[in-house]
Design goal:
The chain is of the alpha+beta class and 324 residues long. It contains twelve helices and ten strands. It is globular and about 60 Å long.
Length: 324
């Protein structure tokens, strides 16, 4: 059994982290709630219990405590609470069933220790949170998310107009992408002349793009597939090149089987990402209210961001758009 009481520096770091996470909340009905979603409440105490458990069990969590980064773990836990509630409800609606053998296999994976060397623990808060939770519950969420992705993957497609932001000579790319997204969202057809102009200028931009999920399993888990028609999205589509994609969704179809040649089937992780993405509208409908001490809901990342200024992208309704 690993003893942490004999490590005063770690203990003090953990104590400071706990005091930080137990700070005053703002907003009615959220003094004790970490997140309110639909008619379900997950409390600050529940989050703190999992943080304490992680610090006791996981060396990587103790490293986060030493680095004064337990806030990363708190956000990861709150994000997983939101997804747990949504996949539980979606499974009932969709008639999904978690195969016990797959759950057992996922539980076995959660029992494997996380690396403690050569990896920055700040990159592992989601994995730490999963291991702090009840393993059967966390594994069941994983299996159900994958089952939801499998159910719809070969029937998903989106039609959209898009442009890209790849240069920073007019300011930071994120700021340019946000400005373009706001222009796209100004009116139902505002994007059309802008995309044409960008394409004429040699930018990667196109009107009328149609993308079936099987053609791009990676993009199938992105925000492109998570919003209804009449929505503008902006996100970093290629982090290696800092390329942002700004698109207006013209059509989203989840019920038309697509027949294309696939070089490789989607991986299990990609199907889980698709399943999580399919929960995006459920979260929007339920109205997840995150306690400000943890941050805000990020619909692009399907997770909790530290603040509205640190969201990983943009989701904007098109003004004046009427659903057909």
């Amino acid at each position: 059994m690993i003893r942490i009481m004999g490590r005063p520096r770690v203990f003090v770091a953990v104590l400071l982290g706990c005091l930080f996470l137990a700070g005053c909340a703002s907003g009615p009905s959220q003094v004790r709630a970490a997140v309110l979603i639909a008619d379900r409440e997950f409390t600050v105490d529940q989050v703190q219990q999992l943080i304490d458990r992680a610090v006791q069990r996981e060396p990587a969590a103790r490293q986060l405590a030493q680095q004064h980064k337990l806030d990363l773990l708190g956000r990861a836990i709150v994000g997983q609470f939101v997804l747990h509630e949504m996949i539980t409800r979606a499974a009932r609606r969709e008639g999904l069933w978690a195969d016990p053998a797959q759950v057992a296999q996922a539980v076995s994976s959660l029992a494997q220790p996380l690396p403690t060397s050569g990896v920055d623990p700040a990159e592992l808060p989601g994995d730490i949170a999963l291991r702090a939770r009840d393993h059967t519950e966390a594994a069941t969420d994983y299996v159900l998310e994958r089952a939801l992705g499998e159910k719809y993957f070969d029937k998903m497609s989106v039609d959209f107009d898009y442009t890209t932001v790849t240069t920073d000579d007019k300011g930071p790319r994120r700021d340019q992408a946000q400005a373009r997204a706001e222009q796209f969202a100004a009116a139902p057809n505002a994007a059309t002349p802008l995309v044409r102009a960008d394409a004429s200028a040699g930018e990667d931009a196109e009107l009328g793009t149609s993308l079936p999920a099987p053609r791009s399993p990676t993009f199938a888990g992105s925000v492109l597939f998570g919003v209804p028609a009449g929505t503008v999205v902006g996100f970093e589509a290629d982090p290696s090149r800092s390329t942002w994609l700004v698109a207006v969704i013209r059509k989203r179809d989840l019920n038309s089987p697509v027949s294309i040649d696939q070089t490789q089937p989607p991986t299990g992780a990609q199907l889980v990402s698709v399943g999580i993405r399919l929960l995006q509208q459920d979260v929007a409908s339920a109205g997840a209210k995150i306690n400000p001490r943890y941050g805000v809901w990020d619909p692009v990342a399907m997770d909790v961001a530290p603040s509205a200024a640190e969201l990983s992208g943009f989701v904007l309704p098109v003004k004046g758009y009427v659903q057909p």
